Every structure is written in C-alpha cells, then in structure tokens.
Amino acid sequence: MSPVTYEIVDVFTDRPYTGNPLAVVFGAERLDTERLQAIAREFNLSETAFVLPVEDPAADYRVRIFTPGAELPFAGHPSIGTAVTLLSRGRLKAGRVMQECAAGLFELTIEDGRATLDGTPPSPLRPLDAGPLLAAAGLTSADLAGEPYATGSGLEHHFLPVRPDAVARAVSRPRPDVPKVYLFSWDAERRRANARLFAPGIGITEDPATGSAALGLGAYLTGTGLLPSDGVSAYTIDQGEHISRPSILDCEVAAKGGVAIGLRVTGRVAAVAKGELVALPH
Who's near 114: CB < 8 A, 6+ residues apart? Predict the structure, then answer.
C-alpha cells in the first residue's frame, strides 16, 4: 500500500495559525469508512478531507469529508482547502474545476492560495422554533434579533439572528434536539455578519469558519429581506475570533424575487504542515 500522507492548511485566512484548520489526506483509497473516521478523530480538527479517485467522469477529483464524529456529504472549508492544496501539488490547474463529494458535484475556481466555491440551489427557508436554538447557544429571547430559519446549499444549517452583543456572550450548551446552531448578528450598513457555529452533535464544539453556512446565509438574507430581493449582492462574514481563529469569508448571492438563485463563497488558504501517517487504524 502506498504511503498515506497529509497536509495541514488553514482556510479562510492568509495567515497560518488563524482561520479554520483542515487536514487533507492522500493515499487512503484502500481504507474503509471506519478507518477514515478513526483518522479524522485522530486529527481532531473540524474536518478532515480524503482525496480519492473520481467515480463521476465529470469530476476532476473526489473528496470524502469527516468531522471527528461523523461523515458530512459536503462542507465549504474542506472544499476550498482541498482544491487549493491540489493546485499547489500540481494535481489541478488554475481555473474552473469540478469537485465530487457525497452531496454531488460542486464547481470551484482556484488560483494560487485562493478559491471560490459555487453553491448548489439552496433549500427553501423552513421556520424554526427559536427556544431550543437560543438555549443551545446559552442565550434568551431578549437576545433574538429576527426569526430563525433552516436552509442550506449542499448542507442545511439552522440560522439564529441575534443582537450584536449576544455573539460574544454565546456559549455552547449541547442539547439532543439541537445538533448544531449558527448564530449571527447582521450589520446592514456594512453588509457584514459576525457569526459563530456550535455543532456538538457532529463532534465540533465551535467551528472557526463554516463555508457551507456562509452559502446558506445568502439564502437566509435574501429570503428575509436583509439583502435585496433581486440582483447580485456581496456580503462578508467574520467568524472564529472568539476562539482565537479569526476568519474572513467573502460571499456573494444572486437573487430573484427574494429567492437565492446563485451562491458563492471565497477564501484564502495558508499552508501549515505536511507529513505521513506512520501507523494506520486497524
């Protein structure tokens, strides 16, 4: 069996030791799901991405994505980090590429140190009960700044709008009925969100940067009137500062009649480490 190697990169930042760290693993084609999960648990990062041979001929590469606790059908920071890493290794060329993952095909545009991910059409906004979400974030109804909804592009998230001062005060309080909650405050003038994601249900205490939620937030913002209902709007998300991993996610949403029809998130990637697994799980 060929060596199983890895690279560690930080995503949604241009400075190592900030942003969202990601392990990109190569040479694990012969390992089953249980062993891939064990490797992800060993890295203990928000996500670990395994680069594998494609199954869809339309794809340039395939990736399987694991948190320490579960496999995900899709995630944003692993998609961006993996694509830029493959470019730096000479396995992809700059420009448009197609990623295959469990959720289907996703298109990215890559260049040195940077990638833009195109989201799939989002799911319709689904109203949520604010009470459990607030409790899972250690907040109360006085902190609420709007109606919570579920939506997503490739991966659904639960969006909880809160007052600006509530973001720093939030703390994860795991509940069996709330596997994850994405709370954010919105600055309408700057078109900028300050966000945090607690996801104890999939093994993530707090995520430093969440690309899939950044895409879904565009659907939320247009669907609730916080961004224009027609045309293309840019917005920015700050995340991770409360856990000393500041991240910046640059986003864009195209809307028609209050419905998001196009979603993009862009992030930079900084290389940190590379190595080889000298022992594999049994």
Answer: 84, 266, 267, 268, 269
Task: Please report, as a single letter, which amino acid is at residue 7.
Answer: E
The candidate with the shortest Cα–Cα distance to 251, out of 222, 208, 279, 214, is: 214
Q: Give the integer Cα–Cα distance in Å for 142 and 154.
A: 32
Q: Over its length of 282 residues, how does the chain's per-residue pLDDT go in tens digits? A: 689 999 999 999 999 999 999 999 999 999 999 999 999 999 999 999 999 999 999 999 999 999 999 999 999 999 999 999 999 999 999 999 999 999 999 999 999 999 999 999 999 999 999 999 999 999 999 999 999 999 999 999 999 999 999 999 999 999 999 999 999 999 999 999 999 999 999 999 999 999 999 999 999 999 999 999 999 999 999 999 999 999 999 999 999 999 999 999 999 999 999 999 999 998
Entry pTM: 0.95
> Are 120 and 72 a contacting pair, CB within 8 Å?
no
47 is catalytic: yes
Given 47, 71, 111, 147, the catalytic residue: 47
CB 215 within 8 A of CB 159: no
Domains for the chain: give ranges and CATH numbers: 5-118+269-276 (3.10.310.10), 126-266 (3.10.310.10)
